[in-house]
Amino acid sequence: MDSTGLDRYYNQRVAWKSCDHAELDAAGARCADVTVPMNYAEPRGRTITVAISRLKATDPGRRRGVMLSNPGGPGGAGLDVMLTIRKAMTPEVTARYDLIGLDPRGIGRSTPVDCGWPIGSMLRSGGVDRAAFDRNTAVQADLARRCADRHGSYLRHVSTRNTARDMDVVRGALGERRISYFGWSYGTYLGAVYTQMFPGRADRFVLDSAVDPKAWHTATLASMARPNEAAFDDWAAWTASRDAEYHLGGTARQVRAVVEDLITRAAADPIRIGRYRVDQHVVPMVPFVELDDPRKRAALAGDIRLLVDAANGKAVQPSPSLVGILQFIYEPTAQLHNSGQAAVLCGDAAAPHDPDWYWRQIQRDRRQNPIFSAIANNLNACAFWPAPAEPRTAVHNTVPALIVQSTGDTRTHYQGAASLHRAMPNSRLITLADVNVHAIFGNYPNPCVENTINTYFRDGTLPHTNITCQEH
């Protein structure tokens, strides 16, 4: 790599401007576009821009530096995420850091990948039988083709490793020796990759709801089946205890049977609800989306009730929560995850190409995980993607970090956080016990978690040992 060619990126002048974003502008944030090479191996070649925002430290006299961030996904636009995260920060923390939001390359305002897909997301269930699986396979091949036709060589350079390099250019352009960092979900993988690639540049890193770096990415998706089934059982018991309200069954087994039957019915005859025809590929996505937080239990019960009523021929008005899920899945919107998510996932690590391999995985896992096996093990556009430009990053370093994880996380399972902790032995692991929640700090209030994180950001003190926090 031509380090001389990179000097102009690290030494560029950052021109701050209005964010043209109502909430950021109201909060006093300023935004900028940072120029980075599309291909770091050819720094004198084509360039792209990465959009950042800054909420300045509230006490310049106590300022420590900058804190970058990522909201997860991958594919989540992060320009405004610090507006949410800082609500959980103490005044002592916001006094010390310029809080930096960033749209990762390929996402949001950062030279976005928009493949012109006819649907919103590639993530969906493979269906109940091989014919449905094969139809989904054809859809996924078409999605990958559209991306290759529209973006060509750029796709090979949309990756976590290059986003980590972009973060380091941002560090240099802001005149900082090191960065601190907060990331949710996929953002923990990005943060871990940064510590591996730039260990001397990492200051205080908090990785919330952690990805297992050894499993990224096909195995990460597959690992979601079991915790989702467990969370579903918890939800089914909760719903059964409220049968007078939802009429989905008086036992958890009855509630599960209703949902499994709903999937079968949607396979035979897609459910008309509003302007959508909800088929077997989408019905299981409703609980999948809403099982990431126990505060969504009522919304999920209500949405299943709506789908059952619609399947029975009743005219129903879809709820805001159900509309949001269906829009995400069916409607192409560049500002959501969509094709940008595919670019990052597929650009990070090669996926198996043989559809039969995925079908065997689904069938092998379906008995244990009847609702979610066909989501977690399903083939997606990555099966038809060009080979990644670089190998996946192996994370194994001694950078200190704070890893935060709930035991019932349905997106990034607890064992993945334990694996990341082993890969970063100088880290500490905060466990939030007996809660099915994904993304904790700034999202799911817990004084124990918040106090530990704020203490670390304030003065750099990690707990002496791993700790467990309780719900109450």
UniProtKB/TrEMBL annotation:
Example GO molecular function: peptidase activity
All copies of domain Peptidase S33 tripeptidyl aminopeptidase-like C-terminal, residue ranges: 375-469
A UniProt-annotated Pfam family: Abhydrolase_4
GO BP term, example: proteolysis
AB hydrolase-1 domain segment(s): 67-215
Keywords associated with the record: Hydrolase, Protease, Signal
InterPro entries attached to this UniProt entry: AB_hydrolase_1 (IPR000073), AB_hydrolase_fold (IPR029058), Pept_S33_TAP-like_C (IPR013595), Serine_prot/Carboxylest_S33 (IPR051601)
Coiled coil: none
Similarity comment: Belongs to the peptidase S33 family.
Protein name per the record: Protease
Species name: Actinokineospora globicatena
